[in-house]
Amino acid sequence: MRTRSKKKPRRHFHLLLKFAALIILFLLSVSVFGEDGTKNGEAEVDLSGLSAAKDAGPEMPEGTVIWTLGRHDGSAAEFRAAGSSGVKEALSMTSSAAKSGELRTLPSGLHGETNPELRIQYELDKIPENGVLFRVSILDAYKSVPQMSVFSNRQLSGIIQIAGISGTGSKYDFRKTYELYIPKEQLLSGTNELTLRTTRGIYSSAAEDKYNWFTWDNLSLEALKSPIKEPIHGSYTLTGTVVNNKQFYFDEGAVTHLPYIMKWLGVAYSGNIMRTSCASDVGRSCEKMDEYYKVLKDYNMQAVALYLHTGDIKLKPDGTLPDDAEKKLTDYFRTYSPYFQYYEVDNEPGLFNRSKAVNLAIAKWLNSKGKTIAPHLQTVAPGWAYWPGYSEDSCGNQKGTVRQCGDPDGWERDPKQRDELEAVTDLTNGHSYGDSYIFSQGGSFTENLKTFGGSVDGLSKRMLATEFGTSDSHVDAYQYGAKERTSAVFDRIMRAHLGYADMFVQHAAFFKNFSLFKYGFNLEDHDPATTEIYYTKEGEDSRVSIMRRLVLAYATHGAPLTYQITNKDQLADKLVYVRAVDTSTLEPLAGSKATSNKVLVNFVNFEQTEQTVTVKVTMPEQTVYEGERFGRGDTYEEARRYITGLKASPEIEFTETLAPGEGVQYILSPSSKVADIAPQGLKAAAVKGLSMHLNWLEAPGASYEVLRADSPEGELKVIAGDVKRTEFTDSKLQEGKLYTYAVRVTGSKLMSEKTQITATGLVPLDRSVWKVTSSVSKEDSNPAGAIDGDRRTRWDTVKHQASGEYYQIDLGEEHTIEAIDLDNTLSPYDYPRGYLVQVSDDGKSWRQVASGKGQLKMTKITFSQVKTRHIRIVQTGAGGNYWSIQELQVYSRE
Fold first, then answer.
1. Reported pTM
2. Which of 172, 201, 234 represents a domain boundary (last residue)?
3. In terms of CB atoms within 10 Å, which of 222, 345, 545, 879 comes out highest?
4. Cα distances (angstroms) measured from residue 185 to each of 138, 153, 188
5. How many structural domains is the chain composed of?
6. Is residue 424 part of a domain?
């Protein structure tokens, strides 16, 4: 949880040291690793005592072996070293198992420069009704996250993302078996060809080829005996993000933006994972947590919760949690545990100077009382940042004279001490940014291997990484040749997590430097339909585009739907992936029992050129479908269209022209099952020129009707039809008249709640250029808190209000004004007992324009038009409360 400054001013020096270390490590890798990518002169690690974690996702059906290459024995010795002379690029299978002589002609893996491709021909008497499953067990791979594209008869079946530790300096092996479902539509009766090919990252150049290598143990192909429950694509993964307001708050703004973000990213409806980290030490952090969790349930999403602030906890003498901490956890669990599936013990305990003993006490509580309240609960190890001791690096939250990174100092970097928490939690964790996951010291991938002593088939414990991503300063390693380096580094870290983690959460939807979307405003005052992509660097791909592409290819779940690509010749050997699933087959989520009824049809272009794909998808029902389509667009409104009238016979034909790297998703339901829902959250605000701007939350439907009544009891009449967006501006109104508005979906009788507003012609001035001061010292108060768009922050007098206190505004230039609002809704009794308003042209000579008494919650001040640059609001009364201003607006007709 990036909640505070992570480092002292020494940060840049440490980044330079880390960069230098990486260069040294890269140079050393030339001598440590041979040209074929195999390790030289390193002792074999004994993996016999290790076990593999239980596979995530649904159980794979049994299969009948069609062919197998090699023995699953932890060795590639039966193959010829990759890159050596005599290695064949093709093999024709004449039996179910290749002979030892044939194996000696095949490479021990693929290498982007020396042997980038292997073609395997085999015969099928008949096409397996349930498709086939390709398996490849990887022994070793370079840290670049090499990709293996798999083509069946020249159609892309999928791209396997391979995690590797070679080049990291780690002495521990990472071995994993990846699985890939190939549908029957990609098979032939008679001779078939399976092609395996190394593939560069979408932003990389040919320079990456020398690093794209992996070594395998064995490969196999099986005919499935029963239908598969999931179109497995390398491994089963779940992903998501966190949507909160102003970094901390799960409030109305977060709730309204949540469904928009989940659908746009493609994570909705598939049982994916979101972080719900409202903090017990931040007032109103959990303000709308109940509604937030209900939205997650509605969209069939899981949650990993983090609530208890551990910084100030003092354990009882017996090592258990104090009563107040237990009460906080108990209350949170009794209220919300039916909605979340996972709870993480702590957030980056070394970096934020947290106690190991407290972490252990929380884990003990979760395993006893927590699981008594919520039997479905799975516990997650702390979000490791793997911070070293204070003597090596500084960290946050230091109090008193003791300087330490965790208690005991540096415990988070120590695998043995971490293992104490791993022994009492169900899933491991690990935060990573940029390429830090492969750092030999502090990398979430390499440190987990230290903790578990290596791996025999993936990590020995399932992994839920509660933070991954990039900051604006991260760039891809130069040796991979990417032109868009800020894009490439985000693409690489997410692909890495596809290779080694089970669940991983991007940090965060709205967050300075790490953001997916534009930030810096209050979500409560923002229309979610206007949410806009944040571009880390001009001219480069966005994190949103990258995440959507990978989510649509790897993290939408459900039973696979039959599909036929009808322009096969155009797409032969092209990296264009189709994923169509029926989410109604997913098991209800633990705790919430959430389900879904959506059909998801995804198209992903991994090519660097535009591609057109035409596909016939067999739908679950022979009926008419409707729903949403998400594609290109810098705003939500641009990216989303509502589609109706899709007739399934039961096939529906889709044709999509995909830009380089583009992903398109359809979210569909039978029209007969789409309930009419009235638009929610209708708001009206005055805009320049006696006009009203209306906006509302979307409801299922292609367009809307806007209705207006010209008096409080007047009849609502349609003033605009076929409105495609969730906003409308009503112009040329009559000053002083009270208008009533409502909205409904075209063709529906359900109407939004009404809203009323008087046309005054007054609009709030832009506050971004204001300079604000007060009679209270800036150190003691926060004048900017009254104009930052956040009602949770404020300016106040820091003591009981007294006559003569003032708040002063420099508007930046002259404006003609006639009204001021002083909002203290969240501190309703902190209103000014009396006030007067003064204005000045120069900030020195003042004249009075208004006076009066303040009002509970909101004080509205009106006066005759006056042209001024400076405004001073003087408090003239006295009372037992502070004088507080949470939000201040000045109104003009300009």
1. 0.92
2. 234
3. 345
4. 27, 10, 8
5. 5
6. yes
